[in-house]
């Protein structure tokens, strides 16, 4: 089986690394955001269970904020994943052209 012997420029490698880092960073941010939201819900439930007075409107505003932030992060994450896929689809097309190896067919056969 042939190898892709092409040497990628520093800029191309940096772009792939940057996209990978952005995806990982966004996933971490989304996890933190989800944890904060869950803590917020649990705190409110405990307050209600103990009979403490709660500002339901403030709770709802805060929950809307967490949900809005989570949705922004999800959208950014999806955009990065789409971009990431495009980079590797382009690499796959280049590899097929250079070596005759179809990465999609190969990955399917390996499964």
Strand-pairing-aware structural class = mainly alpha
Mean pLDDT over the full residue set: 74
> What level of helicity do the residues show?
over 70%
**Unreliable stretches, pLDDT < 50, 5 or more residues?**
107-111
Taking all Cα atoms into account, the compactness measure Rg is: 22 Å
Portion of residues in beta strands equals under 5%
Number of domain modules: 1
Q: Which overall shape is indicated by the principal axes computed on the Cα atoms?
A: rod-shaped
Structure write-up:
Helices cover about 85% and strands about 0% of the residues. With about 110 residues, the chain is mostly helical. The protein has one domain (about 10-90). It is rod-shaped. The chain starts with 9 loop residues before the first helix and ends with a helix.
Summarize the structure.
With 111 residues, this protein is mainly α. The protein has 3 helices and no strands. The protein has helices at 10-49, 56-99, 103-110.
């Amino acid at each position: 089986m042939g190898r892709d012997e092409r040497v990628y420029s520093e800029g191309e490698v940096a772009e792939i690394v940057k996209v990978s880092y952005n995806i990982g960073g966004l996933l971490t941010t989304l996890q933190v955001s989800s944890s904060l939201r869950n803590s917020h819900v649990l705190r409110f439930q405990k307050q209600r269970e103990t009979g403490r007075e709660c500002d339901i409107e403030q709770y709802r505003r805060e929950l809307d904020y967490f949900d809005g932030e989570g949705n922004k992060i999800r959208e950014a994450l999806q955009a990065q994943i789409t971009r990431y896929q495009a980079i590797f689809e382009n690499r796959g097309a280049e590899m097929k052209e250079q070596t005759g190896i179809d990465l999609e067919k190969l990955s399917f056969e390996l499964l």
